[in-house]
């Protein structure tokens, strides 16, 4: 009998994928030619869950996008799609499950306590298919208020952000630790040890500077980690400068920080070969920031879920009491490429 719960997905053909990729690359060239590179970064920050390719694809359909989500996500945010609103098509990987038998050091199947082979379920990408999303302008309902990092980050916020940063680093087998300020030069907040895959963060900074430093450092470490032997993008000091500014701009946009100080006019002076090379850099910039931003969002979501489950049931005489947080502790604030609004 056919399983009616299994959703049939129609993957793109090779020809359709090629046509979509051509649209994406033409959009990238147009954005560079029009001097709108910074605008692209801002949209990447506001739409952290999407790859740069999907953001370019959305811009090809609607140059005025701001915040984009799927229909069900908007419903969860208390908004609904306006009648007659037009969706945008993006691409999503089609995942299929497969089983892998765990092996021992002799490449023999491992057995459990009952003598059965230990089998793990894995996923692989088996093509790509269309998904449809809507810009916030196509919705109406409750006010949409994304999380912003303020000048005074609470201890709870700090914990959630650092949990997200640690999760992002762990996904790439990195870690971080806090060390004494004596290890750092003036105006230096962090160091990246590539050999040990460890980020060292200066102790004693206030909460806001600490989380901004951790976010910045993790994004750079993961970005550099993506540059394997097959990397064919732009290299050198100029490339590193553009990468650093681009990462900081995306993160500032995402976390509601001031982005007015970012200026990418120098991109206009790059020739076609350079902008073509930098396309690979942009992919890595967006992938690294996306991983950090997504993991931080998940950390906040998990914290909200845990608080909701632990909350006492309200009584007729009043609700549950809140635990007072420690007051914000101002400490020394060194230089960071991101500054709290």
Descriptive overview:
There is one protein chain. This protein has 341 residues and is α+β, with helices and mostly antiparallel strands. The protein contains 8 helices and 8 strands, in the order H-H-H-E-H-E-E-E-E-H-E-E-E-H-H-H. It has a 3-stranded antiparallel sheet. A hairpin with a 4-residue loop joins strand 7 and strand 8. Helix 1 crosses helix 3, helix 5 runs parallel beside helix 6 and helix 6 packs across helix 7. The protein is globular. The chain starts with 13 loop residues before the first helix and ends in a 31-residue tail after the last helix. The C terminus is likely disordered.
Summarize the structure.
By secondary structure, the chain is an alpha+beta fold. It has helices at 14-33, 37-46, 52-61, 71-76, 155-171, 207-226, 237-254, 272-310, and strands at 68-69, 79-81, 88-101, 119-135, 139-141, 175-179, 190-193, 198-202.
Task: Tell me the series of helices and strands, N- to C-terminal.
Answer: HHHEHEEEEHEEEHHH
Could you give the count of β-strands? 8
Biggest sheet character: 3 strands, antiparallel
Structural class: alpha+beta
Average of pLDDT: 88
Helix content: 40-55%
Strand percent estimate:
15-25%
């Amino acid at each position: 009998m056919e399983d009616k719960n299994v959703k049939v997905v129609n993957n793109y053909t090779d020809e359709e994928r090629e046509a979509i990729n051509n649209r994406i690359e033409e959009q990238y060239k147009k954005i560079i030619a029009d001097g709108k590179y910074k605008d692209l970064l801002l949209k990447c920050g506001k739409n952290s869950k999407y790859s740069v390719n999907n953001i370019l694809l959305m811009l090809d359909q609607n140059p005025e996008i701001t915040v984009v989500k799927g229909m069900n996500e908007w419903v969860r945010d208390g908004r609904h799609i306006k009648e007659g609103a037009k969706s945008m098509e993006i691409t999503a990987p089609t995942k299929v499950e497969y089983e892998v038998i765990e092996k021992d050091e002799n490449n023999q199947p491992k057995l459990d306590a009952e003598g059965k082979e230990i089998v793990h379920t894995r996923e692989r990408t088996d093509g790509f298919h269309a998904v449809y999303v809507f810009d916030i302008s196509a919705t109406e309902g409750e006010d949409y208020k994304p999380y912003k990092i303020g000048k005074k980050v609470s201890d709870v916020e700090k914990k959630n952000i650092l949990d997200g940063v640690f999760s992002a680093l762990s996904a790439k087998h990195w870690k971080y630790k806090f060390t004494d300020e004596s290890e750092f030069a003036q105006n230096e907040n962090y160091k990246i040890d590539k050999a040990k895959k460890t980020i060292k963060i200066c102790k004693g900074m206030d909460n806001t500077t600490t989380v901004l430093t951790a976010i910045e450092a993790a994004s750079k470490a993961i970005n550099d980690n993506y540059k394997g032997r097959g990397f064919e993008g732009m290299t050198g000091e100029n490339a590193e400068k553009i990468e650093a500014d681009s990462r900081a701009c995306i993160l500032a946009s995402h976390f509601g920080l001031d982005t007015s100080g970012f200026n990418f006019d120098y991109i206009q002076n790059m020739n076609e070969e350079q902008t073509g090379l930098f396309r690979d850099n942009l992919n890595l910039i967006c992938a690294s920031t996306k991983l950090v931003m997504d993991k931080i969002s998940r950390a906040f979501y998990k914290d909200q879920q845990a608080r909701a489950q632990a909350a006492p049931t309200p009584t007729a005489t009043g609700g549950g009491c809140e635990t007072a947080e420690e007051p914000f502790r101002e400490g020394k604030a060194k230089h960071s490429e991101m500054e709290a609004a």
